[in-house]
Write a structure and sequence with these properties.
246 residues, alpha/beta, Rossmann fold, 6-stranded mixed β-sheet, 4-stranded antiparallel β-sheet, 10 strands, 31% helix, globular, binds adenosine-5'-triphosphate, P-loop_NTPase
Length: 246
């Protein structure tokens, strides 16, 4: 992979085509398994892009590449037109926040302390409270996460990511284990997010309702990329899912 750039570009010096996150020809192998096979994706600022596909398609691996947890064998990433070599400990500083599948809180810390881990500015406490309010869990600030119902813990996870005021919010199966009301709330949160959203999710109604564009992976290969209406009727996509269910 290319090394990271020195100084970030200023927004003014960038052409519209350069802005945002771009993945070029990403390939990842785990031993003999091709987990990502030449995946390219452009994510302009402010868009909500879904990444879907059957189990094992490579969705989480793609997230792990963007976060620097997995280093691809080939391919490059660019952020605002400059080579970007992601490092997990620097992600927040680069404006990228990610939620984990399930709930990933520190159990010895209160809800507020967990969300403060996500906040990054001098106004960290203010940002943490704002994120807790936005996610409807401020009343649980002093509680330990383990004492809360699962759906509330998922909201705390979202609050932790939002407290960083990310420009790119990566949501890894945020609807998993939630009921219909919670999923409706989540859809509104995503639609109202004032940042780019990358969404890995199996809940198709949620994906179709909130995404501007959807990338479909199957056995690591990109098989379709387009707006929800196109993806919904794409025979390759139906075949990938039916094949997985068979
Ligand atoms: N660290 C690893 N070592 C070896 N194989 C891995 C590793 N991580 C993922 N894989 C394999 O790579 C493939 C893609 O996995 P990945 O978790 O990215 O799929 P996914 O689309 O996120 O699946 P799911 O929907 O079940 O979460 C799978 O076959 C998986 O078993």
């Amino acid at each position: 992979m290319a090394t990271d750039s020195s100084a970030p570009s200023t927004a003014d010096s960038l052409s519209a085509a350069d802005r945002g996150l771009t993945l070029h020809h990403i390939t990842v192998r785990f031993g003999g398994l091709l987990a990502l096979d030449d995946v390219s994706l452009r994510v302009p600022p402010g868009r909500t892009v879904g990444i879907i596909g059957p189990n094992g398609a490579g969705k989480t691996t793609l997230f792990n590449v963007i976060c620097g947890f997995v280093v691809p064998q080939s391919g490059t990433i660019a952020l605002d037109g400059r080579p970007f070599r992601p490092r997990p400990h620097q992600l927040t500083g680069r404006g990228i926040a990610r939620t984990l599948q399930g709930v990933g809180q520190f159990n010895g810390m209160t809800v507020l302390e967990n969300v403060l881990v996500g906040a990054r500015s001098r106004k960290a406490e203010e940002e943490a409270w704002a994120a807790l309010e936005r996610c409807g869990v401020a009343e649980h600030a002093a509680a330990l996460p383990a004492s809360l119902p699962y759906a509330k813990r998922k909201r705390v996870e979202l609050a932790r990511a939002l407290a960083a005021k990310p420009r790119i919010l990566m949501l890894d199966e945020p609807a998993g284990g939630l009921d219909a009301d919670e999923i409706r709330w989540l859809a509104t949160l995503i639609q109202e997010a004032d940042c780019t959203v990358l969404l890995v999710e199996h809940h198709m109604d949620l994906v179709m309702s909130v995404c501007d564009e959807i990338l479909v992976l199957d056995f690591g290969k990109p098989i379709a990329l387009g707006p929800p209406a196109e993806i919904r009727t794409d025979p390759k996509v139906a075949e990938a899912y039916l094949g997985a269910a068979a």
